[in-house]
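Lab notebook, bench 4. Still working through the backlog of constructs that have no structural model yet. Next entry is a single chain of 293 residues. Request: give me the structure tokens for it.
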Amino acid sequence: MDRAIFRTVCWFSLFDYPLTAFEIWKWLFEPDRPYTLEEVYEALASSEWLAQRMEQHDGFWWPIGRGTAKGAVVQRRERFVDAMRKYAKLRRALHYIRLFPSVQGVAAVNTLAWWNTRPDSDIDLLIIVRPGSIWLSRLFLVAPFALLKLRPADAEREDPFCFSFFTTTEALGFEHLQLGGGDPYLVYWSANVAPVLDRSGVWERFAHENRWVRARLPHAHEPRAVPPAAADTTPHAPGFAERFARRFQEQRFPEAIHALKNKDTRVVISDHMLKFHDNDRREEYRERWHELV
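Model written out:
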């Protein structure tokens, strides 16, 4: 278990995120067996091997040699306050997003899901829509934010909204998006989406379709529940409207998106999934993690 604890703390240190003992237990990566929280507390208190590699400040654990635990804790608290401000903006934006019955679920992802944002961080979202509506949904959701210059391309605006991941209720499983050779980033990403809108229990279905992460994170919880929104009872848009929305948007994709389209799992473009992660750093983080451990 000691090595699993160290690997877990090192992974989160890549994102300047010190962990409490409970968080170490919850996010313990690929332990040889499930452990109790008491066992993790005991290892942290008594393991000489861990004491040589980790330090603790104010209840948070941090790998020795990557700055000070105190500095990391101060920074995590500052980032938590920034994330609170971003969530307030997201809640206001939901008044518009929930107008579209095709939207079945919305979740904060990446650093916002971890409450670990910087002032220049985006408000990253995962949007789940009903089948046959992904292109129209993206068009109507993104357009006003683009017009108001609230998108990441408008660097001068604070807290831009990043709509870089849409999927339908028929494509909720993300196991096939993993990098070859292991993908801890996607494992943690999939396990820690932060729902803010749920129609018809879509996040429970999401957790079921991504139960593959439990083999690597046996102590992790399913995404927290949110109050259910009104069920979708409106008819589907005609097919020609969806086809027009696809052509209209594809013609305006940046060259970097066209260059990577469906070549691997960084950029996925289909009628079931739109994933625009052209600046995908998963492999870089994995290699840096291997160097630490």
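Notes after review: Residues 69-97 form the longest helix (29 residues). The mean pLDDT is 94. Flag for follow-up if needed.
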